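To fix ideas, we reproduce below one chain and its tokenised fold.
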Amino acid sequence: MTSADDRTPRSPASPPEAGLADLQAFAVELRRMNGEINRMTHGFSAHQHLHPTDVSALAAILDAPSPLTPGALREHLGLTSGAVTACLDRLERAGHIRRARESADRRVVHVHYEPSARTAARDFFMPLAEATTRARARFSEGELTTVLRFLAAMNEELAELPPARR
């Protein structure tokens, strides 16, 4: 039987167990979202005949403020140099990226996302963009600003965590 107290929303000044429930609710929703995004990523990788890690590399290359080097990509993905080279080879063969030596130091390679790859990704991920638009429409600008601040803070915190132990 549920008491009136169990149905009452808890305020921030609630007992510690309420905070744990809130943390659990966040964890559940973040895992659900991660799972759904992984499902879409795996679908895209299968559609493009790529490995899911290749799609993670593509996302890192696309989101980088400037062209990445293979070393920066290796660090970001937590892969070995050989694994990054194999990944970049697959992406280049598939027409998703190009490697260029653009600096005065010809040993430095920069990785660029190809415009044709943007079209393929945009076409495949259009349902995600449409779902995002529908979800955003449920919130005010102020709420969306808060959500973006939360997501940015979560990403900052996650980036500070050590890699998983093997």
Summary: The first helix runs from residue 4 to 7. The helical segments are 4-7, 16-47, 52-63, 70-77, 81-93, 115-136, 141-160. The CA atoms of residues 68 and 111 lie 5 Å apart. Strands lie at 97-100, 110-113.
